[in-house]
Amino acid sequence: xxxxxxxxxxxxxxxxxxxxxxxxxxxxxxxxxxxxxxxxxxxxxxxxxxxxxxxxxxxxxxxxxxxxxxxxxxxxxxxxxxxxxxxxxxxxxxxxxxxxxxxxxxxxxxxxxxxxxxxxxxxxxxxxxxxxxxxxxxxxxxxxxxxxxxxxxxxxxxxxxxxxxxxxxxxxxxxxxxxxxxxxxxxxxxxxxxxxxxxxxxxxxxxxxxxxxxxxxxxxxxxxxxxxxx
Amino acid sequence: xxxxxxxxxxxxxxxxxxxxxxxxxxxxxxxxxxxxxxxxxxxxxxxxxxxxxxxxxxxxxxxxxxxxxxxxxxxxxxxxxxxxxxxxxxxxxxxxxxxxxxxxxxxxxxxxxxxxxxxxxxxxxxxxxx
Lengths: 230, 130
What we know:
By secondary structure, chain A is of the alpha+beta class.
């Protein structure tokens, strides 16, 4: 087979990777900022804390062998991962640029154990705590990512065209799942519109020429071409 | 004594055998605050749970099996999950053999077996409010 190799190393990241990393960075930085704002407002900063991970499969392992009764770092885990992308055929061209619509899953995991009331009968059940924690995580993530300063995810102008929350789904615990602690998941599917570019043919420079275009009073255009013909 | 009655009595003897068997001392507290020190089968093992996100989660599963006669003799009923948050849940306490410290649980679900006279309870970690 006659193969014409690409002239240059593919030394770049695609836009969907750039966006993926940016989503994680925004969530991680903003939750820290929110905690600082909570402290300034004399509120419990842990209610604004998120434990953000990118493309990790088991971030909740930190909970499983901890001293669960004493654990305090049980604020929601956020896991950002690229799920899928589509390329509409009517947007872009087959040579250089294709519009890409990647979908990212922003998963929130809430953790709960049953806690008795202080000095009075009653308790807060683990399953309720876990569900509310997961929803709190999704609430914070959605508000951060859909905040107006993040309309274009603080990326260079033109990198993305739109980010839009497609849906939020709660994952119901299995009915026979009688685990000693509860973990409930919630997912925000976030759709982004961006462009992907591919390596292009780079022509050889044969000759450098300079054109000067002059428009006459009667509307005629005069083109002077200067080139080295020696 | 018939075979079922024999099995019923054997189940109690087996569950109560903490000297040569797997019997383990547990403290049971009902929602009214009545407590009893009983012996049964108690465990706490790792398991995989599925929150349906496409990723399995490592969890823990803590089962407890008690004999109904022991509960009745202690003046307690059959343990069960309590949905009403204004009252106290059933609470179980026993030593974690690995960590060698007392772990408190509430009851997520109870499966009474009235054939052999045992009840298996699925436990969740319980923490006193502070």
